[in-house]
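Hi team,

As requested, here is the filled-out complex form for the nicotinamide-adenine-dinucleotide run. I kept the field names the same as last time so the parser does not choke. Let me know if anything looks off before we queue the next batch.

— J.
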Amino acid sequence: MAGSVPPGAVPPADAVPPADAGAPAGVPPAGARRRGRVALTGAAGSLGSDVVPGLLELGYELVCIDQRAPAEPAGGTWVRASVNDRPALAEAMAGCDAVVHLAGIPQEDEWEPLMTANIDGTQAVLETARRLGVGRAVLASSIHAAGFVPVPPAGERVPDDVVVRPNTFYGVTKAAVEALGSLYHDRYGMDVVCLRIASRQARPTDTRMLSTWLSPADAVRLLDAALSPAATGFRTVWGVSANTRGYLSPDGGAAIGFRPQDDAEAWAPELLAARTAPTPGTTDWNASLIGGVFCSPEPPRFTPPTTDGSVR
Ligand SMILES: NC(=O)c1ccc[n+]([C@@H]2O[C@H](COP(=O)([O-])OP(=O)(O)OC[C@H]3O[C@@H](n4cnc5c(N)ncnc54)[C@H](O)[C@@H]3O)[C@@H](O)[C@H]2O)c1
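And here is what came back:
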């Protein structure tokens, strides 16, 4: 069996049960794979905290890398280091089958810190993976890499690989994350999945998220699919739940075995009732562009955590 595993893929178990009839070709049924040892950067962040318990439960052996400690004690092996500290990163990632790179600044900020954390940090992760022979990387991109793409007409979907149209300096860094992933695939044959994460929240909090919500449980399913042997080559995949009002294509996710289970629709009555009508003559950002209000001239900005880990 080992000979059929793509380079860097989390290897399957020795005995693989027959594929279930519902699984797309090449996607092993749940429970069929050995999950392997995975480096997870940014593990102490919001998305990291969402996925660490679920990934451990699925059987992954996690090396959690973050420059801050987790707010709550969490399982896995923890390494407190910046991804920009290349020797520390190499030490932490040694022996891993794959890396999931979530670390970075997750919203609009000044150009310099964004460049350091998001672009240089991603190059450090990919270059370290290459040197160590880690053949699979899952990179956190963002809907904001393509934020200026218009919301499509009802019934249409935005393809997973829609051309980048960044809405912020942050979005530009995520386009660069994707470009780096493409380079490491084309030049070195690494399998790279760029997740264009939409709106990760415990629950949807505005009407845009009725279309863009990614639930914590679906985030675990998404990462598990992106780490599966089916996720070969270079791909961009929307990170979004199965929302009734969704307009981001599910096709890229389905191709790697991502089957989201959650739907923001349960919150629709509450969120629609609380919605205030846009002022006439102004742009309704959330209704017109997939990046929503982050496309406005004054996008929401990143609030750095304080030294004790709390958020100001
Ligand atoms: N939350 C969302 O809705 C969303 C949407 C799209 C994309 N993303 C992307 O997903 C990733 C995680 O987002 P999040 O919401 O969990 O953000 P977050 O700020 O909660 O977590 C990011 C984590 O990365 C760590 N970090 C930052 N720079 C680092 C460095 N140089 N070295 C080591 N650790 C570093 C931080 O300490 C933090 O724990 C980010 O890359 C973000 O851009 C998130």
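Two things worth flagging: DSSP finds nine helices and nine strands in the chain. Strands lie at 37-41, 61-66, 77-80, 98-101, 136-142, 191-197, 199-200, 213-214, 234-239.

Thanks,
J.
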